[in-house]
Design brief:
This protein has 293 residues and is an alpha/beta fold. The chain is 36% helix and 18% strand.
């Protein structure tokens, strides 16, 4: 059921299932998706004896900022601090963290910087911590093509395009990023409602500009960004998942990411599955989490 709690700078709306005394698992969605990505993962975890918490990230769904003065930042550090603040608000000292895209980034950062809070990590796409100092280095032409939407967001035309056509734009990304997933209109609409959040556009645009050094970050998390620039290793037990049909992740996925993990580590490739791996392959995603419990 959906609940709300004040955590850090947000009033977070989240889904919670399972017994409060069971092992906590946080499921973290990405852009442009929402908590419905985990609709088929949650029952599997609850049946296995997990307490499952699935929050709407900042800028999505009913989650709201507590103050108009808080920067509408979407940078990687704030996502991790939001996660830690939610764990603190719920008095959860340790949990398994699982996510993809923005959510996977928050989980990876928490695992790298606060390993005492993380029992295990499932990360789609591998090591998701951005190398912002190295962001100016060109990728191969094939990889640059996959990031067209990010470069679109760097200009005001892109902001206006997302503002005016967010429903159609995000649906296009779903199709491009998961070319083998035949989702229907009702499935997309259920998640697209979350993009009507009044802060969605500001948070998204800031995220894709900050990661390329085009916008300043929130001063409150500057010290965390400094630590992330060193690309810290992840020491907690981790399982990395790659979708074999992911249309946006860099070519090769996470095949070279093992160097960023110093603890127990596995990599699993799920054939044909695209970017929204938990919704496209919920059983595989749930099995990875349960392997860490």
């Amino acid at each position: 059921m959906l609940k709300q709690i004040e955590a850090g700078v947000l009033n977070v709306t989240y889904d919670e299932r399972g017994d409060p005394g069971d092992l906590a698992v946080f499921l973290l969605h990405g852009f442009p998706y929402d908590i419905h990505a985990y609709d088929e993962v949650i029952p599997v975890l609850v049946a296995a004896g997990c307490r499952v918490i699935t929050p709407y990230l900042r800028g999505y769904g009913p989650t709201r900022f507590l103050s108009a003065q808080t920067p509408r930042s979407g940078q990687q550090a704030v996502l991790a601090h939001d996660l830690l603040a939610l764990m603190d608000a719920l008095a959860i000292p340790e949990a398994v963290l699982a996510g993809y895209d923005w959510g996977g980034r928050a989980a990876c950062i928490a695992a790298a910087l606060w390993p005492q809070r993380v029992r295990g990590l499932v990360s789609v796409g591998g090591y998701n911590i951005q190398d912002i100092p190295g962001s100016a280095k060109p990728q191969s032409p094939e990889n640059e093509l996959r990031y067209w939407y990010q470069y679109y967001f760097h200009g005001e035309r892109g902001r206006a395009g997302l503002q005016q056509h967010r429903y159609e734009f995000c649906k296009l990304l779903w199709r491009l990023w998961s070319p083998n997933w035949q989702f229907d209109e009702a499935t997309y609409r259920r998640s697209a409602d979350a993009f009507d959040n009044p802060d969605f556009v500001d948070v998204v645009i800031h995220s894709y500009r900050h990661r390329f050094g085009l916008m300043a970050g929130d001063p409150e998390v500057e010290s965390t960004e400094f630590l992330l620039a060193a690309q810290p290793r992840i020491s907690v037990p981790a399982i990395v998942l790659d979708g074999g049909g992911d249309g946006v992740s860099l070519i090769g996925g996470s095949e070279r990411h093992a160097v960023f993990f110093s603890g127990p580590y596995q990599r699993r490739v799920i054939p044909l599955v695209g970017h929204n791996l938990p919704q496209e392959a919920p059983q595989d995603f749930a099995e990875a989490i349960l392997a860490l419990t």
